[in-house]
Amino acid sequence: RGFYSSYPSPSPSPLLFPKNQQLRQPHQQLYQLQQLQQFQQLHQQQLRQLQQQPQHFLFARFYSGNESEEDGEEGGENKEAEALLKRGKELFEREDYKGSYSVLLEAYDTFEKQHKIQHLLVVSTLIFNVCKKGGLETEKQAFVERAHRNAPEVTTEEEEERKEFEKKAKSVMEQTSEIYQLQNKGKALMGKGDFEEAKKTYWEALKLADHIDPPNHGLIALLNAQTGALQGHVGEYEEAEIHLRASIRHYKQVMGGGKNFYMKEYLETVRLLGDLFMKRRRFASAVKEYEVYVEEAKKYRSFRESWDGMLLVADCTIKMDEFDKGFQLYDDAIHFAKSLQMNSCHIETHIRIGQVKEFLDKPEEALRHFQSGLALARKFGLVEHQAKCLLHVGNLHRMLKNTQIADAHLRLAKDITTTSKMQHLAHLVDFYLGKLLLEIGNLTDSGICLKKAIDTSKQRDINVYRSALCDYGSILVKEDKPAEAISLFEEALDYNTKFQDHAGRESQNERKIENPVSILKKIPQ
To answer: Which residue positions does the secretion signal occupy (predicted)?
Structure first.
């Protein structure tokens, strides 16, 4: 058993398959075009609604630069308005739309007297939402007419400027919409495994993003990160590193000192750089990148990512054969997780140590850590972690030929993953249970489990997919179906060759799929 078979290498980044999410920065380009910093923190949906009411842009021009930074004598009145705003939101959540409208209107009046334009824009958007949700068309029209009456007179020059702004805004939104479409197309192609077409699609999106004026750093950063993650996934490491470093540069243009919209994506990109070096077995370089990841995560008070980085540094240290230092780093990760009461992280660290001990051929120590993790998972009621620990305990007993104990633990894991619909673990449970049943000669049930593992692992875990193909092929050999077995072995070998070409020369101590030719020699003549 090689290192990467018992001890997982970095998994594909979530950036490869992002959830349906809007890119978060396009609206900022519109604000920059109008040079109104007050708009910077507003949500994109709010901006779209406000664009439908031009008088609010006129308010912004009129009040731009005039908002008082200090509450001064208006401090009490400002607190009262804030309380009204909060009350209006509460009534809106209770579906008391008329009550919410009245309270928000009072808040609007107070902010208007203080020339608090940023607050006015927020309250205006809330009022439009209340009217829309509650069907208050009369109230909405009255509010719009009132806003028009209170708006300052507009000169011809200001009107032309507004039209120019709207023209530029429309252009930016059209470009951004096209980028959204390309991003979704790339994501769909990734899901189908069509990596080459996905790369072309992301490159096209990047070209469009580069032409947005002024530069949309958040959008460019995300597209570079997704492109780099994809290239790293298929083994194009030099190109991937270029894109990931470009992504980090652009993220730094929009990152502040505290948590913000881009923190999660930024930290994920920093981590991916370490993953690239880890996959190439350049562990010293990986440690440097992961240490940056740890420090950046602490800077943004993202403690789970800090813990994750600590584990990755320990992983690399172990792979450099610095075992004492590596295990001390794992202990540090356990103390870190316990001190912050991050129970799932505490359990995950025990699992990771167990995997390493298993690789180092210390099954008793590995079993102790897996069982410690299982006890903690049961104590804290973490069902998913119970399934993970049961899976590892069961597989370790399988390797130690403790068939009955292995079967009991793996079936418990299967019950949990089936009941809780844990698809991300189901393929592993089916794979190891299938191997166990194959080893004890239950070919029928083993075949059922291995076929499930093949169906569910192709897009989740390529190592499991290839191994399951070979194991199921061996069943077909025993069932005297050599033609079908050859087809599976060839597919496994094809994936093995393709990914070895990309993954940069695996070392001799890593697990290889058994050559189909050597397997076929075992077929009875």
So the answer is: none
**20 burial class (0-12, 13-18, 19+ CB within 10 angstroms)?**
exposed
What is the reported pLDDT for 253?
Answer: 83
Rounded Cα gap, residues 85 and 107, in angstroms: 6
Give per-residue pLDDT as tens, 7-24.
Answer: 333 333 344 433 333 333
Q: Domain extents for the chain?
A: 26-154, 157-280
Instruction: Give the CATH number of domain 157-280.
Output: 1.25.40.10
The band of 74, judged by pLDDT with boundaries at 50, 70 and 90, is very low
Q: Is 89 exposed, middle or buried (0-12, 13-18, 19+ CB in 10 A)?
A: middle
CA atoms within 13 A on the CB side of 500: 15
- Note the pLDDT tens digit of each residue in 285-307: 999 999 999 999 998 888 999 99
Element (H, E) at 135: none
Q: Using CA atoms, how far apart are residues 394 and 388, in angstroms rounded to an integer?
A: 10
- Which has the closest alpha carbon to 112: 124, 100, 102, 96? 124
**Nearest-CA neighbor of 347 among 393, 406, 286?**
393
Residue with tokens 């951004």: 176
Question: DSSP state, 510?
Answer: S
Phi and psi angles of residue 442, each rounded to the nearest 5 degrees, phi first: -85, 80
For tokens 């299938």, the residue is 434
